[in-house]
Design a protein that fits this description.
Helix content of chain A: 25-40%
Largest sheet of chain A: 6 strands, mixed
Strand content of chain A: 25-35%
Mean pLDDT of chain A: 92
Shape of chain A: globular
CATH superfamily of the largest domain in chain A: PurM-like C-terminal domain
Oligomer: homodimer
CATH architecture of the largest domain in chain A: Alpha-Beta Complex
Order of helices and strands of chain A: HHEEEHHEHEEEHEEHHEHEHHEHEE
CATH topology of the largest domain in chain A: Phosphoribosyl-aminoimidazole Synthetase, Chain A, domain 2
Number of helices of chain A: 12
Strand order of the largest sheet of chain A: 1-2-3-6-4-5
Low-confidence stretches of chain A: 1-8
């Protein structure tokens, strides 16, 4: 069985169909390839779309839409509503940060089966707090009550962020070369990915039970952090060539998105610790090496490629930052990411 | 029973709680009032948020998020997937058109219980087609598979549009005065509003049955049109003071959003015909006068206030446009909108 099909098995267990996802993406490419706006620019890595700002000269707008995924079902069940707003905004901030964009404004979409104003206000308050922390306007939003689509107590939350970047400051992945260091910013938990798997292997009944000094529920709901301040601090002292936000697809799929095909990323997992909730999930779901690094972030939330000479300065600039690996030349059909792993 | 509480009754019958909606909006104001980005501008009517473009001098960005509502459940049931994408984009285009914005880019959010790549591609193709028709980039999107939140076959679709406007071209509602004419653009059906009510009173079993030269299903799914070209054509020949997109809340709630409190809008329903599907719904749900004009668009999709002297030119500039009423002075606590109605 190939690594790829093993991976599909892991997702299929959780009811998520990656093959269907890949086919949808392929079909989208056909749909979107039919016409492209002349001001659209290359969206490095695809974490956000990039568009020349009309009349804005040397600036571009960067936009990204995202949701919180099935983390929302855990939040709804445990009646913890404000965290998902911060999860969502921070996720979006990190996505456009990959192309070096500064948040400008955000809009939320909250869909509910039965509108509870207190719950809705808590969700939006979470969005507002995370927006304010980034000096990002919460410029609008939509709250939809849709009986028949959502069960009572259920809701969905998605959002769109728009930021700005100087065109000259867009990352230059083509400058990445063998010998560069990969600086990583730590993940605090699953962030907003792997929740269908988590809900399958860590049952509702356990969420209140003690785990690692907290509860399973708290560990699962640990908030997706914003890497904005850390990245800006590192950029102030180090030359950052390219970055990745480690979301669905893990290190294996996200890191290559912003690397040229001539290099590969080598990670040495002995250099960091995997959050306990992820260790637990790996054990329970019996995830293979491939599965764990493609399904979960495994403790790395964000990566930055810097010249080796800048690595120490970069690490010193942001709390928790560490050198997670390095860049090597890639030949032929070698994998783009290799993770050397200690037993978790 | 007051008109307001009658109206709540009508929605409550359909499982939509307007009182909860109003309370949520009041709470949002508290949340959002805590901090406002210094570049945010007054969002005339609240159809879209407006923000000064950084480095953009005399331009502003205008953004709006929206969903298709429970029209999606009819589309899913009848397996008609591309129309909802056009519905959504056109709805968003019309919303920001109220502040005179030209679409720049759009991002979609598609959430499904079980991902069917063909369905997903059809939905996104609908978005792409409507975007292209407006020279609007489909800059990104998110497709989320969320088993446990959505039933198999169910999906939700939302989107965010961003447009641009010259700050000098923002509408000036304060210039509206008694004697101005209200030019209307016709609605073709429910557009994206009133579907919880429609699904309650026009049952699934009837959707295939003949109705008004088509079927109930087709009449219900009639696509939300874009008023972009019509509005631009009218603006080329007439001085447009203010506009409204007639969505949830109908004429009664949407028209006053872009009028000063010193005037009221008088509509004379004998001047236009109410689409048959709406007549049917009014009859079946026994909607009061207040209910019908607050729940449904009743045949008017978009309104433009112009000086009386410009009304004939405006009407001649856009196919289907007609004078629907006029502006009068408003005193004290008079209603902001009055509809003189023939029997429907």
């Amino acid at each position: 069985m190939s690594d790829q099909s093993r991976n599909l098995d892991a997702y299929a267990k959780a009811g998520v169909d990656i093959a269907a996802g890949n086919e949808a993406v392929a079909r989208y490419k056909g749909v979107l390839g039919a016409w492209r706006h002349p001001d659209q620019m290359d969206a490095i890595g695809g974490f956000g779309g990039v568009m020349r700002m009309p009349g804005g000269g040397d600036r571009a707008l960067v936009a990204s839409a995202d949701g919180v995924g099935t983390k929302i079902l855990i939040a709804a069940e445990l009646e913890r509503y404000d965290g998902v707003g911060r999860d969502l905004v921070n996720h979006c901030v990190n996505d456009i940060l990959v192309v070096n964009a500064t948040p400008l404004f955000f809009l939320d979409y909250l869909a509910v089966g039965k509108l509870d104003p207190e719950v809705a206000a808590a969700v939006v308050a979470g969005c507002a707090a995370a927006c304010r922390a980034h000096m990002c306007a919460l410029l609008g939003g939509e709250t939809a009550e849709m009986p028949g689509l959502y069960a009572p107590g259920h809701f969905d939350l998605a959002g769109t962020i728009v930021g700005t970047v100087e065109i000259a400051a867009l990352p230059k992945p083509e400058t990445v070369e063998a010998g560069d260091a990969i600086v990583a910013l730590p993940a605090v938990g699953l962030h907003t990915n792997g929740y269908s798997l988590a809900r399958k292997f860590i049952a509702r009944e356990e969420w209140g039970a003690p785990f690692d000094g907290t509860t399973y529920g708290d560990a699962l709901l640990a908030e997706h952090p914003s890497y904005y301040n850390a990245v800006r601090a590192i950029q102030a002292v180090a030359h950052v060539k390219t970055m990745s936000h480690i979301t669905g697809g893990g290190l294996l799929e996200n890191v290559p998105r912003t690397l040229p095909s001539t290099v590969k990323a080598i990670f040495e997992q002995t250099r960091w610790s995997v959050p306990p909730i992820m260790q637990e999930l790996v054990k329970r779901a019996e995830l293979s090496h491939e599965e764990r690094y493609r399904t979960l972030n495994m403790g790395i939330g964000y990566t930055l490629v810097v010249p080796l000479a800048d690595a120490a300065k970069a690490v010193a600039a942001a709390p928790g930052a560490f050198v997670a690996g390095w860049i090597e030349a890639r030949r032929g059909d070698e994998p783009s990411v290799v993770v050397h792993e200690a037993r978790v």
